[in-house]
Design goal:
The structure holds two protein chains of two kinds. Chain A has four helices and no strands. By secondary structure, chain A is mostly helical. Chain A has one domain. Chain A starts with 6 loop residues before the first helix and ends in a 5-residue tail after the last helix. The longest helix of chain B has 51 residues. Classes of the chains: A mainly alpha, B mainly alpha. Chains A and B meet through α2 and α4 of A and α5, α10, α11 and α13 of B.
């Protein structure tokens, strides 16, 4: 990968480089925080803390009470999606901040 | 052909396959033995991780537990999948960048401390052995029930197979065997599930089927099951009996424990690049989710089938499968009121006059998956397939755990601590001998199981949650976290969690282990969540009052935060 870095990267000073890596890390932490907020909401939120309230609602056309469904199905589907979204977004961040392998 | 003959065919064929793969993937260096040479493609690593993770408990026990616990069983579904999100987002990419062989490697280097490394080694070995005994027991049980060979012989055969590919092949052999084992176990789990879904709900997709109506009827299956439960005096299937805090803590302890289990973490050392570590966590969870979203459907079908085929029926007309499991003493009937009918009722059951009804039937939870094909009247080859699947699940997990034990001894204890002078060849032999000894001990644990196999699972997750997870996360996300803080946190978290579990599981009598006596009503299974919090808080406070880590450790933290080559990162920190 490093062979494809644009020429200006080679001229980048140590201070700029440090700033670039710090910005990458901040973007990384922000992304992780957003995804973990969703992770918390679908499992601990919908599946546990709010389960009784959500159970008053049914998924139309099925026997699933909504809270029960999140606890036994929905949260797991969202978990899988979250990781693949993370993979995509991180690959883009790696490219944008030129820190990839 | 009989079910037994089919079982011989499937078990024999899959075992031959595992040994064949092992023979073609022998490890020639410590790098190959510990991390499969670091060249495993992400998709293959995802498959291997899924098999590594899904044990006899996931395959045999989980659907059965949910079947009896209903909503309360959700803690296992969310807990054992949600941990992968933590693993993917907080641990795997950074540990891959760090790029050594074991979890204690990271703890030891990051916290510049032999003490921390040794604490981590002891925790890793303890966690792995508690787990592996259960797997070998699972192997023995499958052999004894399906092939009618004694448990001991079953365990010895299982040990022989694991010996061949774990001791000779190391991580390289284990990885490709686990890929095959995933295929066997998922096929074996899905085939009966699809059959039963078609039968009960009229759709081949179990995940949809259990939310639908019964085949040819208009009642939703879940409503029907709730109705049966109410009628028989059980709690409602779709509602829980545990307190919200308890469900919260157990789920958290299982999730965080999952993310901290060394045999799962080391799988992410085997891929070539950081981006592959991220991707393989996604693949792993996708493959795990196939089984984990099917299990609650199987639970509902099996529960309905069970109640309908036994509750209130004459005992003399009981189905053939009931008789078979009675012989194995996993179903027990005692006609308390002498009416010849099976009173299968819950704790709230009352008769017309309001007097309580006594339950007369005890059904072991573990038989639900194993007996499912027979309950649903599926063809005999499905029974053989399920047996091979259960063995694949148990063996793949056992091998991954044994690898952790052997690398902990040869790499962390010998090479990195007590005998740094040994050559690579000697280290490889030490790893093989440690793996062989591990297989032997695991087999003994399987043949002579300590009476507390169920309890130690709480131990494994609780300890992983209270120790590895916080120590690794702080090591990556806090540059300021130092040796003193991390060790204080580890010791506080481990001591609290271990003493709480030991107190309730081994010191006091069982009737005392009830919510009223627990701290805030949190049972020993969920206490790891509290242990984790204690670890974080103690580590944070202690680190503020002690010197920051040396410059080279802070550089190490900077370097693991970016995927690019280690050399590049070092250059920056020179400024």
């Amino acid at each position: 990968m490093s062979a494809h870095l644009p020429p200006d990267v080679d001229r980048e000073g140590a201070a700029e480089r440090e700033a670039r890596l710090a910005a990458y890390w901040r973007a990384n932490v922000r992304l992780v925080a957003q995804l973990l907020a969703i992770w918390f909401a679908v499992s601990y939120g919908f599946g546990i803390l709010l389960v009784d309230q959500l159970n008053a609602v049914r998924i139309p056309g099925t026997g699933f009470k909504l809270g029960f469904w999140f606890a036994q199905q929905g949260s797991i589907y969202v978990f899988v999606l979250l990781i693949f979204v993370y993979v995509r977004r991180m690959n883009r961040l790696d490219a944008r901040f030129e820190v990839g392998e | 052909m009989s079910a037994e003959a089919w079982t011989y065919v499937f078990v024999g064929a899959t075992f031959a396959l595992y040994v064949f793969i092992a023979a073609r993937t022998r490890a020639g260096s410590t790098g190959e033995f510990y991390v499969a040479g670091g060249g495993v493609p992400p998709l293959a690593n995802g498959l291997a991780t899924a098999a590594d993770w899904m044990s006899a408990a996931s395959f045999i026990s989980m659907a059965g537990i949910i079947s009896f616990a209903g909503y309360d069983g959700s803690v296992y579904l969310m807990g054992w999948t949600g941990g992968y999100v933590l693993l993917a987002l907080l641990l795997a990419p950074y540990l891959r960048k760090f790029g050594r062989f074991t979890v204690p490697d990271f703890i030891g280097d990051r916290y510049y401390s032999k003490t921390a490394r040794i604490v981590a080694v002891i925790a890793a070995i303890f966690v792995s052995f508690t787990y592996v005994g259960g797997q070998m027991r699972g192997v023995g049980i499958v052999f004894s029930r399906f092939l009618e060979v004694p448990v001991e012989i079953g365990v010895v055969i299982g040990m022989g197979v694991v010996f061949v590919y774990a001791v000779l092949g190391g991580m390289k052999g284990i990885t490709y065997t686990q890929v095959a084992q995933y295929c066997v176990l998922i096929f074996a789990f899905m085939v009966p599930a699809i059959f039963i879904s078609l039968q009960v709900a009229g759709t081949p997709i179990p995940q949809i089927g259990f939310g639908g109506t019964e085949a040819g009827g208009s009642t939703f299956l879940l409503d029907k099951l709730d109705g049966l439960h109410r009628e028989l005096g059980f709690h409602l299937y779709t509602e829980g009996t545990k307190s919200t805090l308890e469900v919260f803590c157990i789920t958290l302890a299982l999730m965080v424990g999952t993310a901290g289990l060394p045999h799962v973490i080391i799988r992410f050392y085997t891929v070539p690049r950081v981006r592959d570590a991220r991707a393989s966590a996604g693949w792993a969870l996708l493959f795990i989710a196939i089984l984990y979203t099917t299990a609650p459907a199987v639970a509902v079908f099996a529960r309905t089938n069970l109640i309908e085929s036994v509750a209130g029926k004459p005992y003399d007309e009981r189905p053939e499968w009931v008789k078979k499991w009675e012989t194995a003493q996993l179903i027990e009937f005692d006609d308390a009121n002498g009416d010849g009918l099976v009173q299968y009722v819950g704790p709230n059951a009352v008769d017309a006059s309001g007097a309580p009804i006594e339950n007369e039937l005890i059904v072991d939870r573990d038989i639900m998956v194993l007996a499912n094909p027979e309950i649903a009247g599926l063809p005999p080859w499905v029974v053989g397939l399920v047996a091979a699947g259960g063995l694949a699940a148990a063996l793949s997990t056992a091998a991954g755990l044994l690898l952790v034990v052997s690398t902990s001894i040869s790499h962390d204890l010998l090479k990195k601590t007590f005998k740094p002078g040994i050559t690579e060849r000697q280290e490889l032999w030490a790893a093989r001998i440690a793996a062989a000894a591990g297989v032997g001990i695991a087999g003994l644990l399987g043949i002579y199981p300590p009476g507390f196999v169920g309890e130690v699972v709480a131990f494994a997750f609780g300890l992983a949650a209270a120790s590895f997870f916080p120590a690794i996360v702080m090591g990556i996300f806090s540059r300021r976290m130092n040796r003193e803080g991390a060790i204080a946190g580890l010791v506080a978290g481990l001591a609290f969690t271990a003493s709480y579990i030991v107190w309730f599981k081994f010191v006091v009598d069982e009737p005392y282990d009830v919510p009223a006596n627990h701290l805030f009503g949190i049972s020993p299974v969920g206490i790891g969540a509290v242990g984790m919090l204690i670890n974080f808080v103690v580590a944070f406070v202690v680190s503020r009052f002690t010197p920051p880590p040396p410059a080279e450790v802070q550089e190490l933290v900077s370097s693991i935060r970016t995927p690019g080559g280690a050399g590049e990162a070092h250059e920056i920190s020179v400024s």
